[in-house]
Hints:
Layout: H1 5-10, H2 19-36, E1 43-47, H3 55-59, E2 64-68, H4 72-81, E3 88-90, E4 104-110, H5 118-129, E5 132-143, H6 150-164, H7 167-178, H8 181-189, H9 196-205, E6 209-212, E7 224-229
Parallel strand pairs: 1-2, 1-4, 2-3, 4-5
Antiparallel strand pairs: 5-7, 6-7
Helix pairs in contact: 6-7
Amino acid sequence: MGLSWVDYWNGDSPVYVNDRHKALHAKAVAGDIITLIETPDAKVLDYGCGEALEASRVASRCGTLYLHDAAPAVLAKLMARVADQANIRPVDAEAVWQIEDNSLDLIVINSVAQYIPKDDFAALIARLAGKLKSGGRLVLGDLLPPGLSPVTDAKALLSFGFNGGFLIPAMLGLVRTYFSEYRNIRSALGLMHYAPEEAVGVLEAAGLKGKRLARNFGHNQVRMAFEGRKP
């Protein structure tokens, strides 16, 4: 069986050029999630959360924060790190579906859509929509528009590196990525791209009222974010 995206993220993937890059990215994404939390008792699910380095900060702004990642090694490290925090609940692939229907105020799915075949992603969104309470929102972040090239993403990283004080590591990281397994698996499996109307259509097919948001999560504003609100 060939390598899958889950296998890749379950390993030691070189997605961040250094610790500063990782920390600034986590801080930015957590800040964006916090802006979406409407009440201090909100129940929030971060689906595809990654390492969630700023989970404590997000959890301080809501009632319950569920964290799910498909990579077992990532989830295991996360469980160990937040074990003593009562309102943070890491959930595996089985436990995420045990969350009560019609109970969540917010579901965030950031930088996930590009790694899942479109039919599977649409089915995932439809299933997760059932976990939202009336008025709850499902927010998709970091969707790739059609025609987005690696060069455009590289420019966004270099700008982030310049502003964040890690420009030289960012430049070296791009070279390392070019020769890494990421390039090979991206070439083999590809990444999913969505036109804005297509992304809205996925949300509306799940029974949500969809729209594009003004800004994406994190530093790369060439990529897109969308919201689906449950009637």
